[in-house]
Amino acid sequence: MSTRQSPRRREVLDVLRTAPAPLGVAETAERMGLHPNSVRFHLDALVADGQVERRTEAPSGRGRPRTVYTARRGMDRGGLRDYQLLARMLLSRWAAADPAEALAELTEAGRSWGRFLTDPLPPDEPATPERSVARLVALLDGLGFAPRPEGGEQPGGPPERIRLRHCPFLELAEERSRLVCPLHLGLMQGALARLGAPVTATALEPFAEPDSCVAHLAGAPDG
């Protein structure tokens, strides 16, 4: 996703960066030809964002202390972002690899992240299928998948599948589902393994329906 700072706020920041000394509100406003109240609003926002430092200077003679602003040194955080491009660059490494090798590596990468993102159950909380799947659903919900458990042979029993009604990587999944979806499947497998769950995710159907993907669950193999 690309984000860009407002042009006016960037202009305020540029004025502070090029000034040979810290500037007050009135000085900044004069250089920009704006009303001081408008400049003060942008300065307060830049301070809140951590891009500008505000401090009080003691007066050289009689008078009130003076509030001045300086731009913090560092990379410009108001510029363009394009994390989709970064993701495409990283995925291109597996797109050119042997399909079987890519599938194995991507699934294992997903498992590693699933284990990393999941806290184990407390010792006094048995890893029942219902409890384990509920924890997995909570994880997927927090990651933006909008999961909905479905199925189950008995009322109150564990679901047989999880419908994913949103994909936080939708554009990439549409372009390269054979690369993105193994990451998602592995993530679910790693999370359930971290919980010591008696169930695992066995398959993931990309776009099983126009508005959702479906993850299938089954008993985990011994060990």
UniProtKB/TrEMBL annotation:
SUPFAM superfamilies noted in UniProt: Winged helix' DNA-binding domain
Which positions fall inside the HTH iclR-type domain?
11-55
User: Sorted alphabetically, which Gene3D superfamilies does this protein's record hold?
Assistant: Winged helix-like DNA-binding domain superfamily/Winged helix DNA-binding domain
Q: Which domain of life is it from?
A: Bacteria
- Cross-referenced InterPro entries, in alphabetical order? Tscrpt_reg_IclR_N (IPR005471), WH-like_DNA-bd_sf (IPR036388), WH_DNA-bd_sf (IPR036390)
Q: Which Pfam families match?
A: HTH_IclR
Name of the protein: Helix-turn-helix transcriptional regulator
Organism listed in the record: Streptomyces cinerochromogenes
